[in-house]
Amino acid sequence: MIVARERNEEFMAEDRQTEIRGAFDAAAADFTALGRHLWGPIATRAVAVADPKPGERVLDACCGTGASAIPAAELVGPNGHVDAVDMSGPMVDGLRRLSDLPQLHTHHADVTTWQAESYDVVQSALGIFFFPDMTAGTDHLISLARPGGRVVFTIWRGESMVAAGRHLGLAIAEVTNTPVPAPRPEHLIDRINQADTYAEWLTERGLADVDVTVHEMTLTMTPEVAWLVIVGSGFRGALTKVPADAVEAVRTTYLTSLRDAGLTELDATTLIGTGRRVA
Ligand SMILES: C[S@@+](CC[C@H](N)C(=O)[O-])C[C@H]1O[C@@H](n2cnc3c(N)ncnc32)[C@H](O)[C@@H]1O
What is the pLDDT of residues 59-118, one digit of tens each? Predict the structure, then answer.
């Protein structure tokens, strides 16, 4: 029985990986457009906290189209080295189009099995909660830092971004005449998405000097930005189940739903968790 359940969980984890990869493969083109409003400001703050120095070796895990990998590569300079790793091919291709800095090395791979070591900095902006096993994946990233090296993992705080997904779910249900999706099963991230609980979890990872910076941010939901939030992020995955000729109706229903709820600002606050690898 236990073996069967573990097998089942393994398959579910694989399905989830495939789903996440599919969502970001589809979102890649719009992801860069949303970057100016969302990924860029978040990553700029995270890189400022990571503070890569000239000549350092950096791993940027779940790099997307490079919102944090590119500024890190600029900071480490020509004598430094940044490995930027993402499991979505179209995202990595997008990054390759945006930067040709020789110190920035792009890789299409699952970073939870990435094998390299002795990074001065291991950073991941809005990536670690996608790992099938968030704790094991994060522990793996920490193991890639050199002893004394810095790790910087950014996650959403609390209900950040959630309202957009809720209104999208309502719009899809209305347009496709299907039930409103059930809330997703509870995930570790739901228990550690506040500064104090996140700091505790990072400390349990064996890190020293743990600190969490709160980066308060709101997105002004003009119709253009509100739709980019869907098509240029992981929410895009929900649209893959919508027939192509119904997507425009979903867009207008979603925008109406936001307007009726008076949602003009979307919370996009992040928690930037830092620590140092002990031996
Ligand atoms: C929300 S995006 C963030 C991208 C980028 N760090 C940024 O801040 O703009 C999350 C990214 O994590 C990537 N990702 C999720 N799980 C991954 C894994 N196991 N290995 C590599 N990349 C992964 C997705 O493909 C996606 O590009």
Answer: 999 999 999 999 999 999 999 999 999 999 999 999 999 999 999 999 999 999 999 979
Cα 44 to ligand 1 centre (Å): 16
In angstroms, rounded to a whole number, what is the distance separating the alpha carbons of residues 141 and 50?
Answer: 15
Which atom of ligand 1 is nearest the CA belonging to 67? Answer: 9
Amino acid (one-letter) located at 16: R
pTM for this entry: 0.94
Give the pairing of strands 104-108 and 270-277.
unpaired
Q: Which domains does the chain have, with CATH numbers?
A: 2-160+186-218+269-277 (3.40.50.150)
Residues 6+ apart with CB under 8 A from 214: 157, 195, 269, 270, 271, 272
Our mutation pick for probing the ligand 1 site, out of 17, 86, 189, counting the most ligand atoms within 8 A of Cβ, is 86
Q: Amino acid identity, residue 49?
A: V
Closest residue (by CA) to atom 26 of ligand 1?
A: 64
Ligand 1 geometric centre to CA of 86 (Å): 6
